[in-house]
Design a protein that fits this description.
19 strands, 2 domains, Beta-lactamase, alpha+beta, 546 residues, globular, 17 helices, 6-stranded antiparallel β-sheet
Length: 546
């Protein structure tokens, strides 16, 4: 009993600490993982010092990067695929990209190509030799990508953020309105192995899974298979759950699809329940069935009459997963890939436990009161000595079955950040969902700014669709600016972190705005400067919801 009281007290401290900090926090159950981190073959990180005696390679110039981009992105365009070498005039000024053959001739001055400007194109014959003529047929394609002027500054911002909060590693992706991308990583995957963090790493995005699950449900709405204002019982049957009682009334038959998506269903958040922690700590190596989590929520009962209040939780989106499977006759991960991932053109997202990425996620660390709380769980006792890394706990040394199964469609996706950024854009730019469906997606709950699984917010004066995610060992954030057509996604393998992920995303957002302005991009006025729409309040600010 003394251990249980101490556990409860520490849990309250954790919740108060996170709430006072105003950060987005973890929403999934705490459970450790077997050491699965591994060094990626491809690393894109900074901060590594060369070995003694080694020469530091000269940094790649913007012009060289540009010509490599030309070769990679236009290799199938006749006459352009060999434009892979930068050429400079006698004054050292960059004049364009040429093929190796033309470079040998040393005669080309078709353009004065500079960052952000258009250029004409040298004309090549069928052998790839310059004809001495210039053309402008492909001038629109010769604008230097916005990513070239951003990559270095975003890398510095990520490096500085890692240094400030002590996180082991991180990966960040920015998708820009010209279609170019900034992909950077910093730090390490594992503090004991020193494998560099990579843009090809997979990260547990936790509650960012919620808007993705909502998108699957809304695709079913478009197909006429689901009505958001119908009851859950319409799809799962009248006996899907009973005994969800408050003041003698069973509300299970009355809960609607809308309510499970916008957190007005009355469910409690299992990640902050001491009883749930203790229940799973003795079975960390036994996967949880989604119905087990739902049954737990029904047993503890509703917090309020469904539909009358808002309270962030994960159980509702787990119920949504059950609805998806019942309606489609497919597993949730199969339906998610078919209805959302495939239309978005993304592949590197995986809904556990039904599927897993080809490589393991980085090692996962917790610190502070959260680490103290987790260390008290009886089921973790055999792993504590191995888990201690300085002031951090490495949860990857223990079993993972509960952690990868309990969140499911409410928080179980593992993803690469570039595909997460692409997906967030595709879900809200008309690629995946119809315009009227996006409007439905954006209908907020009661007097909050939380809609059907997505947070509506304002950042640096522009509207966003966004969501955070936190699970023991990982902290993540994704946002899409519809007025800027900019998408940002990032994750780190430490929780909690201060400065938090949202603050880094704000810093990167400002860098993007500066780059757009410098490139002469037409940027709409911020809210309050010529736009009548007011910025929505964030109901999760200062709470534990993410």
């Amino acid at each position: 009993m003394k251990r249980f009281k101490l556990l409860c007290a520490l849990l309250v401290l954790v919740m108060i600490s996170i709430s006072c900090g105003g950060s987005e926090s973890s929403n999934e159950t705490a459970a450790p993982q077997e050491n699965q981190s591994q060094e990626s073959e491809t690393t894109e990180t900074s901060g590594e010092s060369p070995e003694a005696g080694e020469e530091t390679p000269a940094p790649e110039t913007a012009e060289e990067k540009y010509c490599e981009w030309r070769e990679d992105s236009l290799e199938k365009t006749p006459g352009l695929e060999k434009l892979n070498i930068p050429v400079f005039d006698e004054d050292g000024k960059f004049v364009g990209c040429v093929s190796s053959e033309a470079h040998v001739e040393g005669k080309i001055a078709c353009s004065k190509l500079q960052v952000g400007e258009m250029a004409v194109v040298p004309v090549f014959d069928e052998d790839g030799n310059w004809t001495g003529e210039c053309d402008d047929d492909f001038s629109d394609n010769l604008t230097v990508p916005l990513s070239f002027s951003l990559e270095d500054s975003v890398q510095v911002a990520l490096d500085d953020w890692i240094a400030a909060n002590g996180a082991p590693g991180s990966s960040l992706a920015v998708l820009l309105p010209d279609g170019s991308e900034v992909l950077v990583a910093s730090g390490v995957q594992d503090l004991r192995a020193d494998g560099a963090a990579s843009t090809e790493d997979y990260w547990r995005i936790a509650s960012i899974s919620k808007p993705i699950t909502s998108a699957v449900v809304l695709r079913l709405v478009e197909q006429g298979l689901v009505d958001v204002d119908a009851t859950v019982a319409t799809y799962l049957g009248d006996e899907w759950a009973t005994g969800y009682e408050l003041d003698g009334v069973d509300y299970a038959p009355l809960i609607t699809i809308r309510q499970i998506l916008d957190h007005t269903d009355g469910f409690r958040e299992y990640a902050f329940d001491p009883g749930f922690y203790l229940m799973v700590s003795d079975r960390l190596d036994v996967p949880m069935d989604p119905q087990e989590v739902v049954d737990w929520a029904f047993n503890v009962g509703p917090q309020y009459v469904p539909g009358t209040e808002y309270a962030y939780n994960t159980v509702g989106h787990i119920v949504a997963g059950l609805v998806i499977e019942a309606v489609t006759g497919k597993t949730a991960h199969e339906a998610m890939r078919e209805l959302v991932f495939d239309p978005a053109g993304v592949t590197e997202l995986y809904l556990t436990p039904g599927e897993s990425p080809p490589t393991y996620v980085p090692a996962m660390y917790v610190q502070g009161e959260l680490a103290a709380l987790i260390s008290l769980l009886p089921g973790l006792a055999p792993y504590l000595d191995a888990a201690e890394v300085g002031d951090l706990l490495d949860l990857s040394v223990g079993p993972q079955e509960v952690l990868t199964s309990a969140p499911w469609t409410g928080g179980g996706i593992e993803a690469q950040m570039d595909d997460l950024a692409r997906l967030f854009k595709a879900m809200f730019d008309g690629t995946v969902l119809q315009e009227e469906t996006i409007e439905l997606f954006s209908e907020t709950a009661l007097d909050t700014s939380y809609a059907l699984g997505i947070q509506l917010s304002e950042r640096v004066g522009y509207r966003t669709f966004e969501h955070g995610g936190g699970v023991p060992g990982f902290r993540s954030h994704a946002r899409y600016f519809p007025d800027l057509d900019v998408s940002i996604a990032l994750s780190t393998n430490l929780i909690p972190v201060d400065p938090d992920v949202g603050q880094l995303a704000d810093t990167v957002t400002q860098l993007v705005l500066d780059a757009l302005e410098d490139a002469g991009w037409e940027v709409p006025s911020p809210i309050g400067e010529g736009q009548s729409e007011e910025a929505p309040e964030d109901p999760n600010a200062g709470t534990t919801g993410s």
